[in-house]
TrEMBL record:
Record-given protein name: GmrSD restriction endonucleases C-terminal domain-containing protein
Classification lineage: Eukaryota, Fungi, Dikarya, Ascomycota, Pezizomycotina
Record's keyword annotation contains Signal: yes
UniProt xrefs under InterPro entries: GmrSD_C
Organism whose genome encodes this protein: Sordaria brevicollis
Stretches assigned to the GmrSD restriction endonucleases C-terminal domain: 108-202
Domain of life: Eukaryota
One Pfam family from the record: GmrSD_C
Alphabetical UniProt keywords: Signal
Keyword Signal: yes
Cleavable signal peptide: 1-18
């Protein structure tokens, strides 16, 4: 009887299929350590939010060609997805994307927006209004800092042009990375922050 039970247990164990490993979260380049982000945050110029009314999304040309037929959007989709395949025009035809803001898992590129960590309008009121169009184009297509993220489309739309004092990712576990990335972009591009923005970023960095 014991041998029968043991054999049954072995058979049951052999029939168990391991759950697939979760798709990895995207990791854009240049995310600093928490200590570095705190140092960078302390060095940023604090300035009141003043909307001069001159912002226009077209003043930040995007998505430009990055390599071959791939523009910045398609580049980030390939970089941050898993098993991404593309057609001759570099459009993603299949793959899996995990949105770090909300944990959503998507298999259609149409469900993904490429978010500017620091929104274009926020950049405008933080100093980009004084830039050349060429520099704004570089900012809008910056693949060398943690500025571009593949995220769930409606979550990106909810964020819109809000700074961290007005909007935070649905996943509180992402607060630390979000704040580090936001600070890095502002630091890299010498953009200003508001006092409310600084306070929110400080609180988020304290979750690291």
């Amino acid at each position: 009887m014991k041998s029968y039970i043991f054999a049954s247990l072995l058979a049951a164990a052999s029939s168990v299929v391991a759950a697939p490993a979760p798709a990895p979260m995207p990791t854009p380049p240049g995310i600093p350590s928490a200590s570095t982000a705190k140092t960078q945050l302390a060095s940023l110029t604090v300035k009141a939010y003043v909307d001069d009314g001159g912002y226009n999304r077209d003043l930040f040309p995007h998505w430009i060609t990055i390599s071959g037929t791939c523009n910045a959007r398609e580049y980030v989709l390939k970089r941050d997805g898993t098993g991404v395949t593309t057609d001759d025009a570099c459009r993603s035809t299949s793959g899996t994307w995990v949105s770090p803001y909300d944990g959503g898992v998507w298999t259609q590129a149409s469900d993904i927006d490429i978010d500017h960590m620091v929104p274009l309008k926020n950049a405008w009121v933080s100093g980009a209004n004084a830039w050349t169009t060429s520099k704004r184009q570089q900012f809008a297509n910056d693949i060398n800092s943690p500025q571009l993220w593949a995220v769930t489309d409606n979550v990106n739309q909810s964020k819109s042009d809000k700074s961290p004092d007005a909007w935070k990712p649905p996943l509180t576990s992402f607060y630390c990375t979000y704040a580090k990335a936001w600070v890095q972009v502002k630091y890299t591009w010498a953009l200003t922050i508001t006092s409310a923005e600084k306070s929110a970023l400080t609180s988020m960095l304290n979750t690291c």
